[in-house]
């Protein structure tokens, strides 16, 4: 799906549709309709509004379409927690488990020499889960890094 179609679908499939979202963006319904209409060449949805729509609706279709067009993928980051009860070793264990599952899936999928669409989706899912697990470890380590830094004068005051 291309970015323009994703924006059109996001706006029109949202409960309340274009009029509900236009109000939240401070636009008229007509303006938002024109901005997401692929057949209306003179109005375009801006990046800031695309971001607002994504955050308001929690619908990542525009983001995913943009990433696909750039030959990239979107990996949701784990929720950040400032708590001290993180378990870095448990997170690293998850990375090892996800890696093993990816290798197992690749081995199974390539056994017959061909890769079907469904098999490719299964491998893609396993790869995405591995990347998410790695991101969780990095998030935990970044939080520990922040906590271990000496506080600056501005942070103390």
Descriptive tags:
8 helices, mainly alpha, 157 residues, 68% helix
Estimated structural class: mainly alpha
Radius of gyration: 21 Å
End-to-end C-alpha gap: 50 Å
CA-based shape? flat
Biggest beta sheet summary: none
Average per-residue pLDDT, rounded, comes to 89
Share of helical residues: 55-70%
Tell me the strand percentage band: under 5%
How many helices? 8
**Helix and strand sequence:** HHHHHHHH
Helix and strand layout, with pairings?
Elements: H1 3-13, H2 17-25, H3 29-36, H4 47-57, H5 61-69, H6 88-110, H7 117-148, H8 153-156
Describe the structure.
The structure is a single chain. By secondary structure, the chain is mostly helical. The chain has helices spanning 3-13, 17-25, 29-36, 47-57, 61-69, 88-110, 117-148, 153-156. Helix 1 (3-13) runs antiparallel to helix 5 (61-69), helix 2 (17-25) packs across helix 3 (29-36) and helix 6 packs antiparallel against helix 7 (117-148). The longest helix has 32 residues, at 117-148. The model has no long low-confidence stretch (mean pLDDT 89).
In short:
The protein has helices at 3-13, 17-25, 29-36, 47-57, 61-69, 88-110, 117-148, 153-156.
């Amino acid at each position: 799906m291309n970015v323009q179609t994703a924006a059109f679908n996001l706006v029109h499939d949202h409960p309340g549709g274009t009029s509900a979202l236009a109000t939240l963006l401070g636009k008229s319904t007509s303006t938002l309709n024109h901005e997401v209409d692929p057949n209306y060449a003179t109005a375009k949805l801006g990046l800031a509004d695309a971001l607002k729509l994504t955050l308001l609706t929690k619908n990542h279709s525009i983001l995913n379409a943009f990433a696909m067009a750039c030959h990239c993928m979107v990996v949701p980051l784990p929720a950040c927690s400032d708590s001290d009860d993180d378990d870095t070793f448990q997170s690293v264990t998850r990375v090892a488990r996800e890696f093993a599952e990816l290798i197992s899936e690749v081995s199974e999928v390539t056994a017959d020499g061909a890769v079907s669409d469904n098999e490719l989706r299964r491998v893609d899912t396993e790869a995405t889960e591995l990347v998410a697990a790695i991101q969780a470890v990095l998030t935990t380590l970044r939080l520990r890094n922040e906590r271990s830094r000496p506080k600056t004068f501005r942070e103390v005051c």
